[in-house]
Design brief:
Strand content: 15-25%
CATH topology: TIM Barrel
Order of helices and strands: EHEEEHEHEEEHEHEHEHEEEHH
CATH superfamily: Aldolase class I
CATH architecture: Alpha-Beta Barrel
Largest sheet: 8 strands, parallel
Radius of gyration: 17 Å
Structural class: alpha/beta
Shape: globular
Bound molecules: (5S)-5-amino-3-OXO-hexanoic acid, zinc ion
Strand order of the largest sheet: 5-2-1-12-11-10-9-6
Helix content: 25-40%
Number of domains: 1
Distance between the termini: 21 Å
């Protein structure tokens, strides 16, 4: 089986130090968390950034500071900024990090309830606009899909030329408003993407490690990190994103699957090596 690509979603936009004191806010904290995840085996850093007080921002200068600091500590890691940002941000605000021309960025493929009264809005025109801009800048999108219909949207927009193949999907399972985190649902998602696509799996909250284990045996890839889950085991807060990545590395090796380096991840994803 192909080696396992581990993505570390180190920060997110919604989780705070109230959930886990180790959630990074400052440039220094973000760079340190990225380094711990990288040293543990992550080849991709999925990046949101914050102001020092913890409020989410998509400010291009803040992204640049964080990316520079991460690159200094993790020389060859793939950095994947979020274009999802936080619930309620405008498209212009969300798009800022793509102008730094990262290798990858997220492309959210539909609108989704996001718990409570929150709605994460991605209209068809938004997805087209983001897809087209990423194409133009040579950025590989990671297609964030919270439900099966979002896979269909991505395929439709691929057929219309907004998204290039081979496509790389992130199945986000277990959001309140998205598809559930069950084996049946994961298999359904994996069987719904075009041949030649790759996928990674994000299980929200307590679903993080069970979904990771399933993806490892199915030949998919794995995303873990504070953005999605702050616990290393039931009731025990993780000390760092590195600890979460390390647990995935151990599960994968136990199951006989080796971990991809960033260069190997580039090859698997069709990025420039
Ligand atoms: N924070 C969520 C509203 C992405 O990074 O592209 C959106 C999100 C998805 O995290
Ligand atoms: Zn994100």
């Amino acid at each position: 089986m192909e080696k396992l690509i581990i993505t570390a979603a180190i920060c997110g936009a919604e989780v705070t130090k109230k959930h886990n004191i180790n959630v990074p806010y400052t440039v220094e904290e973000i760079a340190k968390e990225a380094q711990l995840a990288y040293e543990a085996g992550a080849s991709i850093i999925h990046l949101h950034v914050r102001n020092d007080d913890g409020t989410p921002t998509q400010d291009i200068n803040r992204f640049k500071q964080c990316i520079d600091a991460i690159k200094e500590r993790c020389k060859d890691v793939i950095i994947q900024p979020s274009t999802g940002g936080a619930v309620g941000m405008s498209n212009e605000e969300r798009l800022q990090p793509i102008y730094l021309k990262p290798e990858m960025a997220t492309l959210d493929c539909g609108t989704c309830n996001f718990g409570g009264d929150d709605i994460f809005v991605n209209t068809e025109n938004t997805i087209k606009e983001f897809g087209q801009k990423m194409l133009k800048l040579g950025i590989k999108p990671e297609l964030e899909v919270f439900d099966k219909g979002m896979i269909d949207m991505a395929i439709r927009l691929h057929n219309k030329g907004y998204i290039k193949a081979p496509m790389h999907y992130n199945f986000v399972l277990g959001v309140n408003g998205g598809i559930s985190a069950t084996a049946r649902d994961l298999v359904f998602m994996a069987e719904s993407i075009p041949k030649g696509s790759t996928f990674t799996v994000t299980g929200i909250g307590k679903n993080q490690f069970p979904m990771a284990a399933l993806s490892i045996v199915m030949g998919g890839h794995v995303r873990v990190g504070f953005e999605d889950n702050v616990y290393i085991s039931k009731g025990v807060l993780a000390k760092s994103n590195g600890e979460l990545v390390d647990k995935v590395v151990k599960i994968s090796r136990e199951l006989g699957r080796e971990i991809a380096s960033p260069q190997e991840a580039r090859k698997i994803l069709g990025l420039k090596e």
